[in-house]
Amino acid sequence: MSDTMFTRRGFLTRSAILGCSAAASPLLTPVSLASAPWDNRLVVIILRGAMDGLDVVQPYGDPGLAGLRRTLALRPDAGALDLDGYFALHPALAPLYPLWQANDLGFVHAVSTPYRDKRSHFDGQDLLEAGTVTLGPASGRDGWLNRLLQTQPGMSAETAYAIGHDNMLLLSGDVPVANWSPDVALKLSPQGARLAELVMHDDPLFRDAFAEAQMLSGSMQAMAAEEMAATGDMQGMAGMSAPAQGQAKGKPKGIKLIAEFTAKRLRADTRIASFSIGGWDTHNGQERTLPRALDQLAQAILTLKAELGPHWKKTAVLAMTEFGRTVRENGTKGTDHGTGGAMLLAGGAVRGGRVYGQWPGLAEADLYQRRDLMPTGDVRAYAGWAMRGLFGLDRAVVEQAVFPGLDMGSDPKLLR
To answer: Which PANTHER family match (predicted)?
Structure first.
C-alpha cells in the first residue's frame, strides 16, 4: 500500500482519455470505514458517473420503453432476467440473480437526491454524499454517514487503517474514521503529461491531484492494464510499463481487493464501510460499457457475501448514484445525464425480491422535463429507513441530524 492516495477529484487515465471526468473514473476507489457498538453492518457503495437505472432494472412492462430504447431495451426473451413480470434485470447482473431469488437483493426505482437540472457529476456526487438539500457554506462539508456517527456516543475509528490524505465526503466530519486505499499509479507520455498540466493549470483541485498522482504507483495502473487487455486496446497496453501489464494478472486486485478488505474489517470492529465504483458515465456504446461496470458491482457484492460469512445476515448494502440518465438513448447508442435513477439493496438484512418505489411511467407527459425519468422518491429516505432499521435510530434523528429537513415518508419496510 502507498502512504498517499488520490484526492477525491483526482483522476487516473492514459493520455488519450482527457475528456473523461474524474468524477466518473472507474479507477477512483477509496474505502472509508467506521467502528460502532452495533452488531449490524452497513456498506454504502457510491456508483460514480450516473448509473442508468432504466437499463439495470428495465421496466419492460411499460409500453413506452421499446420506443425510447431501440437498441438498449431488453425483454426477458432477449436476455434480461425477469424479476416480477414488469421489471427485468440486466443480463450482466445475472451472477446476482440467485440473491434476488433468495430475497437478498432488491431495488428502488425512480429515486434521486434533491439535485436537479445542472447534471454535473461533481455537484451531484457532493450532494449525494452530503445528504443535504443544497451545497454551499450553509450545508457544511460533512457527509451523512459521519452525521450518523455524530449522533452516537463513544464512536472510535480504526486508526490502524488511516492511510491517505482525505476521506470520502460521505464519511467526512467531526467523528474520525479510518481511510484505506489500494495503490494508485499514473503513467503518461511526456506530451500527455504536459497537455494535462495545461488543461488543469487554472483549476487547483485538478492541478494538485494530478501532481500527486504522478508520484504514486501500484495496483490501480494494473487495473487500467487489465481493462485495456479485456477490451483489446493493444495500443494503450503498449504505452504502459511491463510491470504494470504483469500486475494486471495478480490477485487479489481491483474491486475484489477492496471488497475483501472491507469484509475483513466488518468481521472485526468496523460496522460502517463505504467505497466507490466508477465507469457508469455511458454516453456512447452503452451496450458495451455498462456491462463492465455492472460486473464490478456484482463482484463487489458477491465478494462481500462470501467473505462476510455468517455476518452477511446482519448486513445491508446500499448502492447509490448521483443521478439517472435520459430515457431516450442518444445517437451514439448511449444515454446522457438525467434525473430519476435506481438504487440497489443487497444483504441478508434486506427484504429483497422486490422492486420498491412508485413507478411514474414513461409516457412523455410523465417524464421530468419531458426527457428524464420522473423522481417519485428521495434516495435519502430509503437510506434513512435502512439506518433506522439497522441501528435503531429515532426517526427525528434521521430527519433532523443525519438528513436535515428530510421527510422520510412512510416506512417502505426494506429490512427483514
So the answer is: BLL7424 PROTEIN (PTHR43737), DUF1501 DOMAIN-CONTAINING PROTEIN (PTHR43737:SF1)
* pTM, two decimal places: 0.80
Q: In a 3-state reduction of DSSP, which class is residue 295?
A: helix
Least confident of 211-220, 296-305, 381-390: 211-220
Cell reading at 342: 435506481
**pLDDT tens digit sequence for 210-225:** 554 443 333 344 444 4
Tens of pLDDT, residue by residue over 132-145, are 998 765 555 789 99
Whether residue 265 contacts residue 273, with contact meaning beta carbons closer than 8 Å, is answered with yes
Do the domain assignments include residue 395? Answer: yes
pLDDT higher for 139 or 410?
410
Q: Which residue from 130, 184, 136, 182 is spatially nearest to 161, judged by alpha carbons?
A: 182
In a domain, 10, yes or no: no
The span from the first CA to the last CA of the chain, in angstroms, equals: 38
Q: 58 pLDDT band (50/70/90 cuts)?
A: very high
Residue 200 lies in a domain: no
Name the residue with cell 438498449: 72
* Three-state DSSP string of 123-162: HHHHHHHHCCCCCCHHHCCCCHHHHHHHCCCCCECCHHHC
The length of the chain, given as a count of residues: 416
CB under 8 Å to 194, separation ≥6 — which residues?
Answer: none
252 CB neighbour count, 10 Å cutoff = 14
Instruction: List 248's β-bridge partners, or say none.
Output: none
**148 and 23 Cβ atoms separated by less than 8 Å:** no
**What domain range includes position 77?**
24-186+222-234+245-402
State how far the Cα of 12 lies from the Cα of 341, in Å rounded to an integer. 26
> Number of folded domains in the chain?
1
Cα separation values, 115 from 161, 244, 275, Å = 33, 39, 21
CA distance 66 to 83: 18
Task: Give the chain's radius of gyration (CA, Å).
Answer: 20
Q: Which residue has the cell 442518444?
A: 330
CATH number at residue 122: 3.40.720
The Cβ-side half-sphere exposure at 389, using a 13 Å CA radius, reads: 19
* CA dist., res. 271 & res. 7, Å (int): 24
- Angstrom CA distances, 93 to 1, 82, 83, 254, 352, stand at 31, 12, 12, 18, 15
With respect to residue 90, please indicate whether it lies within any of the assigned structural domains: yes
